[in-house]
């Protein structure tokens, strides 16, 4: 299977991805987990960016990068002087209004801008792909999970690589990429003829999906629920339980384009497609 050049994909003009981003509102948050999972698809936020003008500056740069295929270096060069001029940069003291506790917090930095860039572009691009794929389920109803296999691939993502399930399998509601910070996975589609000609095994998540509690923050000890899936590790041949990173057990495209449908399966997915036309 050829390697996926995500940088090249991002250099194209993904119209549905741009539309997805433009449809978002704004949300002011201090910690990233305050805007949880599905809600991320409805509002643009950056942790500790508590001024609307700063959020607008960052979002405008993300939109331009997405529409015009700009690089992360451009993104950092574009935003750094703007954020520095507005004082949203470096480590600063923060006073908790409830406890009075003083702490050091990290605002803008080259590392944070890189994280903002990669997270937003990957999530937005994949949400656009989901909508396009849902619109074509009559012809290509089988979806395949594709991970980039190299030294940086997480074992859980490697274990899901190549798995084919129908578009309406509940698996995709929690495991449609991205499945974590820096995730490079994607989904491709297959027709019934493809399945037959290539002898592809179509799986089902029945009896394999579950949930578990994982820590959101080592500092606070808070735990949140994540989705789990039992898969076979391609290296060992043993069954393993995999899950997205904490906060990533949702489908950005489904949450944004069909927010009232909730967890779609079977006929609900067909309804989602009709609403999108």
Quick overview:
The protein is an alpha+beta fold and 277 residues long.
Task: Describe it.
Helix 3 runs antiparallel to helix 4 and helix 4 crosses helix 5. The protein has 277 residues and is α+β, with helices and mostly antiparallel strands. The longest helix is centred in the middle third of the chain and has 25 residues, at 110-134. It folds into two domains: 6-121, no CATH class; 140-276, no CATH class. A hairpin with a 7-residue loop joins strand 9 (209-215) and strand 10. The chain is globular and about 60 Å long. The chain is built from ten helices and eleven strands. Mean pLDDT is 81; it is low at 1-13 and 259-277. The strands form four sheets. It has a four-stranded mixed beta sheet with strand order 7-5-6-8. Strands 9-10-11 form a three-stranded antiparallel beta sheet.
């Amino acid at each position: 299977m050829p390697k996926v050049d995500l940088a090249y994909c991002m250099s194209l003009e993904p119209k549905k991805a741009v539309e997805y981003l433009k449809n978002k509102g704004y949300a002011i948050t201090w910690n990233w987990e305050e805007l949880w999972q599905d809600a991320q698809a409805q509002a643009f936020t950056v942790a500790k960016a508590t001024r609307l003008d700063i959020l607008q500056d960052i979002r405008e740069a993300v939109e331009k990068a997405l529409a015009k295929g700009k690089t992360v270096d451009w993104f950092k060069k574009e935003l750094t002087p703007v954020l520095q001029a507005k004082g949203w940069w470096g480590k600063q003291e923060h006073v908790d209004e409830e406890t009075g506790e003083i702490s050091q917090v990290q605002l803008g930095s080259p590392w944070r801008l890189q994280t903002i860039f990669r997270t937003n572009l990957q999530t937005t691009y994949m949400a656009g792909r989901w909508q396009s794929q849902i619109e074509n389920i009559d012809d290509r109803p089988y979806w395949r999970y594709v991970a980039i296999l190299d030294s940086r691939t997480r074992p859980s993502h490697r274990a899901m690589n190549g798995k084919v399930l129908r578009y309406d399998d509940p698996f995709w509601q929690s495991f449609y990429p991205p499945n974590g910070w820096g995730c490079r996975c994607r989904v491709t589609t297959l027709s019934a003829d493809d399945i037959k000609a290539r002898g592809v095994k179509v799986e089902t998540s029945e009896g394999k999906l579950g949930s578990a509690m994982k820590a959101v923050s080592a500092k606070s000890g808070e735990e949140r629920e994540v989705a789990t899936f039992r898969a076979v590790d391609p290296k060992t041949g043993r069954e393993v339980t995999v899950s997205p990173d904490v906060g990533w057990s949702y489908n950005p495209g489904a949450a944004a384009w069909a927010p009232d449908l909730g967890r779609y399966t079977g006929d609900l997915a067909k309804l989602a497609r009709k609403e999108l036309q």
